[in-house]
Amino acid sequence: MLEFIDWMNNIIVVYGVHLAIDGKGLRGGTEKNRGGKCPYVLNVVETEKGLTIASMPIDAKTNEIKAIPEILSLISVASNMITIDAIGTQIDIMNMIIEEEGSFLMLVKKNHPEAYSSLTGYFDTLRNRINEQAKDEKKKSDFSMPEDFDCTDWIFEKNHDRMEYRRAIVVHPNGNLDLISEILGAGSSMVKSGIGFQTIGMIETVRIPIEKDSDGNDITPSLAEFLVNGSRSCPKPKVGDSEDCDIQKVGTLSNRILSATEVLEIKRKHWSVEAIHHVLDVTFAEDYNPAKSSKYNCSLLRKIVLNIVTMAVINGDVKDSNSTPVEAIHLSGQDELLKKYLFGNPPVINID
C-alpha cells in the first residue's frame, strides 16, 4: 500500500487538485459460507486525469469513517480539494483537512438529521423568496435574505434512460455565526463544532424517466410538469437524499468560498470515481474475482494496471482513439509500458 502511494507520488504532482475519496466493495471476495461481509477498499482518485493515487483495505472490524483519517494521513492534503460522500461528513475529518491546509466539499444527508432538515428547509424558503422577489420586489416577507448568496438555473443532461436536471444554491456566511446556526440548526453538531464554513448550500437533482407511447413517440413530461404531476411511470416522485430518489436534495458544506456553479462542478467530478469502479468491475471483472486471502493484493494490481494505461494515454505512449483500457494496453507494447512506468523514469504528470 505505502509502496503504491510512493510510486504515484513520484509520477503525479498532487498539488491544487481535486481528490475524491470513496469506498468500493470486492463482492467476489465475500466468504458467503462463513457469513462474511463484503470486503471494502478505500480509494483516493485524482478526478481530472482519473488516476488512483492511494488505496487501502478497510478492516472488517471497522468502517469507512475510521479508515478515512488514516488514508488522509498518507496523502498530500495541503492546497487540494477533498470530497467524500456523506459518510465522511464528520467533524474530526473536516478539522483534519483544515489543519492540513486543505479544502473540502462535504455532503449533508439524513445521517445528520437536524442539519439536513434545517438546511433543506432554509434553502427551499430562500428559493421561494427569490422567486417572489423576481415577481414583486416590494413584496414583504418574514424571511431574512442573506447578504451574499448565489444560485444557478437548471442544468439539463440526458443520462441513459432518463432526463436529469441539476441546480445549486449557496450562501456565504462571511463569519456570521448566527446565519450558520439558522441554516444548520442551533442544536446541530455542525454548529457546535465551531467550524467556520465559508460556503453552505443545497444541490437539487431531478431525474425524469424517458417515456414513449405505443407508437414510439416521446411523451416524457417537462421538468415543470414532472414537479407538479409526476409522470405516467412515476405518478408520485420520490423525494429524499439518496441517489435513487426522483427528486434528490443534498446539502453541501465547504471551508472555501465557492460559487453555486463551482459546487455543482465539484460534486459532479467527485462521481467520476464511479467510472473507475465501472472499469474495474466490467473490464477487469473485479466483482467476479473469487480471491479471498489475496483479494486486496489483486485489487491493488488492477489499479496499477489501470493507472499505467491511463498514464500511457496521457503521455502519448498510446494514442487515445476512444478505446477501452484493455484495448489500449493491447494496442501498445505491454512489456514496454511495464518497463517504463514500473522500473523506468516515466514523465511527471502535472494536473492543469
Taken in chain order, the helices and strands follow as HEEEHEHEHEEEHHEHEEHHHHH
Radius of gyration: 23 Å
Q: Give the count of structural domains.
A: 2
β-strand percent reads 15-25%
CATH overall fold name of the largest domain: Nucleotidyltransferase, domain 5
CATH architecture of the largest domain: 2-Layer Sandwich
Uncertain stretches of 5 or more adjacent residues: none
Q: Average pLDDT value?
A: 87
* Straight-line N-to-C gap: 27 Å
Instruction: Tell me the number of helical segments per DSSP (H or I, 4 or more residues long).
Output: 12
Mind summarizing the main beta sheet? 11 strands, mixed
Approximately how much helix is present in the residues? 25-40%
Net shape: globular
CATH class of the largest domain: Alpha Beta
Q: What does this entry look like structurally?
A:
The chain has 2 domains: 2-102 and 274-343, Nucleotidyltransferase, domain 5 (2-Layer Sandwich); 113-254, no CATH class. The protein is 36% helix and 20% strand. It has helices spanning 2-9, 64-72, 91-99, 113-135, 177-184, 189-192, 223-229, 260-270, 273-282, 295-314, 325-331, 334-343, and strands at residues 18-25, 40-46, 51-58, 81-84, 103-108, 149-151, 155-159, 162-171, 199-209, 239-240, 247-254. Strands 1, 2, 3, 4, 5, 6, 7, 8, 9, 10 and 11 form an 11-stranded mixed beta sheet that branches. The model has no long low-confidence stretch (mean pLDDT 87).
